[in-house]
Amino acid sequence: MLELLLDAHGVAVRLKGRARCARDAKDGTLRRHGRNGPVSEATMEFSATQRSGDGDGAPGATAAFPYDRMTVERFRDAFPRARWRDDLRAWFVPGTTAERRLTAWAARDWSGVLAFADQRGRDAFAFEPITSPYLEAADDLAVRTPYSRAVIAELRTVPWARWDPAAKAWRVPFRSYEELRRRWPAIEEAARLAEPEERRKRKESRQASSEQGDRRAEAAERRRHRYPVPEDALPPPGRVLMTHAGPVVFEAVTGELVEAAIAARFYPGVVPGPAALIWAGWRRPSHAELVRTWPARVAPGAAELARGWWQPTIEVLREERRRAASLERAQTARRTEAR
User: Fold this and answer.
1) In whole angstroms, what is the distance from residue 322 CA to residue 290 CA?
2) In the prediction, which pLDDT does 134 show?
3) Distance CA 131, CA 226 (A)
4) C-alpha 12, offset from chain centre
5) Is beta strand 162-164 parallel, antiparallel or unpaired with respect to 226-230?
6) Whether the Cβ atoms of residue 4 and residue 103 lie closer than 8 Å to each other
7) Long-range contacts for 191-194 (Cβ within 8 Å, ≥24 apart)?
8) How many angstroms separate the CA atoms of 145 and 168, rounded?
9) How far apart are CA 287 and CA 321, in angstroms?
10) What is the DSSP letter of 296?
11) Dihedral (Cα; 15, 16, 19, 25), 10-degree rounding
């Protein structure tokens, strides 16, 4: 496995093997680069690994790098035959010389670019800084907020932003400052709403409202893990399918008739047809099952939506795979902390 490491000064070092070092551009010292993280906050990693064959037996190489929309676009322009492999969590480029071409592309396109972009971001921050209790500026920008899905969704769209579990903060390099500043009003508002006191106020308000009973009823219905399906269009068991309740794997059809009032209240997307609706038991798919699922070529039609279940598209699968991976990581962390 060959890896190209670019530090904040644009110095590229080609390395091999598990134990790796990067040379500092200022003093020439060597620092180790572990498998699970970069050498320093300013170091960006691009890896290219030659493979004897992908699933079809064709030789090629996988490329992995931190997600950034513009970088992906440049990468696709340079390698039109590249395709994303969910099972490898990397881009696959066919060809016996793919690794060499990938490494050369990274050295040519990234050397010096990151250092210039970081300096430009520092200048922009010095001229027009963000003043907020949720933001700290040092070697990079650290964003610390109460847990909020809205904050996470916003930060995921910021190029080069990454979660630092040790610091329990999002790390954003200065090269992404303009995009962070554009999204900061939404991030700060979502963080404010996620404060414990604000959550408590909203909870008390919900409990006093008439909608609380409806929400409890919907939650109780979800815990029953049942879903109405047409008697003449039963879903195949054991496969990942999309429904109005999200991705599911149907396990069994009970044959019990669905009451019309329950279907209308909790499952309005399932349109009753000539055949009766019956209950089918389901479970949530794992991340591995979502990765193995073959996507549909086209979006579901009106008939499939009315039926209540359909084959998911690749766009839907990618989002659900991301959610499932995040959920499994959180569950693993909770189990580790409980020990």
Assistant:
1) 10
2) 95
3) 49
4) 28
5) unpaired
6) yes
7) 191/134, 191/145, 191/146, 191/148, 191/151, 193/148, 193/150, 194/145, 194/146, 194/147, 194/148, 194/150, 194/151
8) 9
9) 6
10) B
11) 0
Residue 58: half-sphere exposure toward Cβ, Cα within 13 Å: 12
Spatial CA neighbour of 46 closest among 111, 116, 142: 111
Residue owning tokens 């209540």: 308
pLDDT digits (tens, 9 = 90+) for 236-261: 999 999 999 999 999 999 989 999 99
* CA-based nearest residue to 277, from 286, 285, 268: 268
Instruction: Identify each DSSP E strand in 112-172 by its residue range.
Output: 135-137, 141-143, 162-164, 169-172
Between CA 157 and CA 187 the distance in angstroms is 12
Residue type, 317: L
Residue 316 tokens, joined: 């839907």
Burial track 8-39 (b if 16+ CB lie within 10 A, e otherwise): bebbbbeeeeeebebeeeeeeeeeebeeeebb
Rounded to two decimals, the pTM is 0.48
Handedness of CA 35, 37, 41, 46 (dihedral sign): positive
Neighbours of 304 (CB within 10 A): 15
pLDDT, tens digit, 9 for 90 and up, residues 247-305: 999 999 998 999 999 999 999 999 988 899 999 999 999 999 999 999 999 999 999 99
Which structure tokens are listed for 14? 């080609």
Q: Domain ranges in the chain? A: 2-111, 127-196, 221-338
Alpha-carbon span 324 to 291, nearest angstrom? 10
Burial of 221 (0-12, 13-18, 19+ CB in 10 A): middle
